[in-house]
Amino acid sequence: MSEQVDNLQSNRPVVVGIPDALRDLLHQREAVCAELEQLPSKVVEDYPAEIGRLTAAFHALPLPPPEYAEILDKRFAEAVQAAETAAAENEAKLKARAAKLEAAAAVTGELDALIAAGDLATLGEAEALERKWNDIVNAVGADAVDAAGFEAKFRPLKEKLDAEAAADREKAEKALKLAEEFTALTAGEDMNLLHDRKTEIEIEYAALGRVPKQAADRYVDALHKAAARLAMHYETLDLARWESYTHKLDLCAELDKLNAVPDSELPKAARALHELREKWKNLGGVPKVKNEEINTRYLEATRALQHRVDEYFAQRRQEQKQAALTKQGLCEQAAKLADSTEWNVTSEAFKTLQAAWKTIPHAGAAEKTLYANFRASADKFFGARSAYFDERNRKFDAIAEKKRALIAEAETLAEQSGEQAVRRAKQLRAEYQSAGAAGRAEPELAAKFNAAMDKFFSGCREAFAGRENRSRELIAELEQLGTAISEPGAAEKRYHEIQRELRELACRRTFDQEKKACARFEQALSGARKRVLVDKLTLAKTVARPLAAAFSALKRGETVDEASLAVEHLDRFGKLNSAAQLLKSAIAGDAKALERLEKQAAAAEADQNRICSELEKLVGVKQEPEEAAPALDLAAELQAAIAGNFAKSSARAVEKVVDPKQLLSEYLNTGLVDAETLERSFERFDNAYGKLR
């Protein structure tokens, strides 16, 4: 058995110890198996037939013993299977070779067709054909096909196509560059450059001729995008022109509105015109069909408005110049008032000036300086006024504090009694009255003080009775004093003494009688003064006539006796007395004295005429029409304001209330005039004054 195993492992059984015939049989069978095993490595034209021959030869041999037959049969079966596999592979190779040879013929045919195609042949087709041919040659060998013939035909075609491909690549590069330029221009903002360059690029591309498809496609795509961008641009531009036209119509409508504004709004319109012009500049063009229409409308509207604006500002400059002159006058008036201490009157005057300032138009470039000057004068006055009133208020506060102390002491008197307390109460009243007014706090303080006094004196009935009796005595004396006043001055002095004592007594029960008695006395005193003034008028006539006669004679060049100037009571009339002294100097030959005398006479005549006119107007005497007074200038207005007449207009003053006694007093002190003027004046004055009696 060990021998059989060795034979199986080596597939070459070694027959040991067996008969020669069996050994030969085994060797024969083994030889057939060996030949069959070598068959796959041999080149055999007909593998199936050879396999069949060897199989028949193996089966034709006698069968060996079973122990050997199994091994050899197995070996034979494996060899047959390997040979059949090799036969199948060989068959496949033969078929593949035959296919390659057929393919070689087909490739040769394709080459002929490609050559026949001429310009239609492409390098890609040639390269694909070359790859096919190389695969066939590699598979069957160059000897199996006509490689030289194929190469002789293929090489010229390939070289031609390579040259054409190089040319196509160059064209493709140029086409791609043109496409890239299109792309860059399309992405840019300069559509004019794109428009101009587009035509040039198209010419350059056309000059290239046939361009490879890929490059041509990219170029065409870039061209289409550029054309679309230009179309969009022109469409947008056209829309923009119509939009610009619409905006310009709106601007023209605004110009029409500005042309309709009143003159007072022209400064604002001028600024708006400037803004509209800037907007117009920033707008683009309009469609050609609307260009002339919109531009003509715009030019006409702007010229009309500009003309109005120019005229307005020319007139405004003139008004500002006049306003500057007027405000300069107000500044001068304000400067004169700045140092005034007539606080109330000057305050009203400044208010009048300020109101006048507000009515004057703006003074242009001079406005700031003028207003600063005007304001400086006002600030100076009102600053001084504030300082004055601050000081006055401090005084009022001090007085109020003092009176509060007196009130506090007066309130403690209610707990005291006796003559000493009464004397102290009177002292407190005297101190209270002598302390002065306490401003706005005075009514409240007076009420508290009187309440304290009343509380104190309510317990002093006897003292009150004495005060009442004394008050009635003083009232009776006042009534008697007013019945016959021969000396108004002395009577008035006594009247004030009685008033002071009555205030000290402060008797409430006799207060109404006191008021009535005072009113009756003041009326009687006024009548007495009037009588004295009338008597003084008579005396004035007596004094003035000799002096007037001497003055008239001196004016005529006549000789005047100085003794005629010795008039009685001359010293009671200041201006007449002064004129008499000048007359003496003029009689002595002093020309300057005569000149001064004539000036005084002219002033006196003017005063007399004024007084007579006012008196005649007061009593309703018809006056001769006078020439229209010239319009008051601003300085006169300010003087009138200071005098108290704040409602004076630029043409005439509001009349003040006239006191006949004041007019009479002024008339007595008018001074010297010539005799004829004096008599005429006396006649007018007597005629008017007589109507008041």
From TrEMBL:
Please tell me whether the keyword Coiled coil is annotated for this protein. yes
Please name the Pfam families in this protein's record: DUF349
| Coiled coil start-end | 587-614
Instruction: Respond yes or no to whether keyword Coiled coil is given for this record.
Output: yes
* InterPro entries, per database record: DUF349 (IPR007139)
Q: Which domain of life is it from?
A: Bacteria
User: What's the protein here called?
Assistant: DUF349 domain-containing protein
What is the species of this protein? Victivallis vadensis
